[in-house]
Amino acid sequence: METASVKDYLKLHLIVFIWGFTAILGNEMTIESTDLVLYRTALASVILAVLMKIRKRVFILPRKAVGYLFLTGLVVAAHWVTFFESARISTVSVCLAGMATTTFWTSLIEPLFKKQRVQAFQVLLGLVVIFGLYLIFKFEFNHAEGLALAMVSAFLAALFGVLNSKFTVKYPAYGITLYEMSAAAIGLLVFIPIYKSFVLEADVIYQLPTTRDWFLLLLLSGICTVYAFSESVELMKRITAFVVSLTVNLEPVYGILLALTIYGEEEMMSGGFYWGTLIIVMAVLSYPVARRIKRNRESV
Questions:
Q1: pTM of the predicted model, to two decimals?
Q2: Whole-angstrom Cα distance, residue 267 to residue 252?
Q3: φ, ψ for residue 97 (rounded to 5)?
Q4: 176-212 pLDDT, tens per residue?
C-alpha cells in the first residue's frame, strides 16, 4: 500500500463532511423523497457513464453479477428514500442520529453472510446503542417516527454495504456503482406510479423539480455521490479500510453540527437527544477499535 499524506487524510474528512451535508440538501428540495432519489440516481448514472467512457473503464459485467447488482440497487433506492423522508418528517439531526446505528446493523448482518457467529462484544455494543436510542426516544418522542425510519434506512445501508463488500472483490467499483444507480432509478421509475396512484391516490405521478431543485440535485449527484465515491475509492489505495470506516462514523457528527449551523433553533434538541447520540456514536466508534484489538490478539 502507498503511503498516505496529510492531504489524503484531510480529503477523507472532506468526503465524510460532504456525506454529512446530504440530508440538508435533500431537506431543501421541494419534490418528494421518491422523486428526489429517482432524479439523483438517474443523474448519477449519466455522470458515471460519461466518466467511465472518458476514462475507458469496464461497462460490461457477467449476467449473473448484473442480476445481483440490480437487486442491491433496489436496496440502495429504499435506503435513500427512507433517509430523506426521515429528515423531512422529523429533523436532520434526528435522521443522522438514527443513521449512526449503521455500523451496529453491519455487525449483525455481516456474520450472517459470512456464516460466522455474532461476537459477544457486538451484542454488548448493540445493548449500548439501544440504550442511546432509548434516551433519544424518551426525550424526543415527538420525533419517534422519523427516528424509526432513519433506523430502517441505516439497516438498509448496512445491508447493501455488506453486499457491496463481496462484489468489490470480483468487479470494478465504478461498474458496480453504475449498475446499482441505474437499477435504483429504474426501480423507482416503476415504483412511483404504483405508490402514488394506489397508496397516496395522488393526481401528479412524477414531480418536476424547480430550477433550484435541479441545481441541488446536480450537487447531490455530482458532488455527494459521484465525486465522494470516486475519491473514497482512490483513497483506499493509501489509507486502510479500518481508518476509512472509523472516519465515516463521524458523518452524523458533522451532519448534526451543519444542521445546527444552518437551521439554528429549528434543529435544537433536548439534552437527552445529544447524550443519546453521543452514546451511539461512541459505541459505533469503539466497534472497529475492539475488532482490531481482537484480531491483533488472535494473530499473536
A1: 0.85
A2: 14
A3: -65, -40
A4: 889 999 999 999 999 999 999 888 878 888 899 999 9
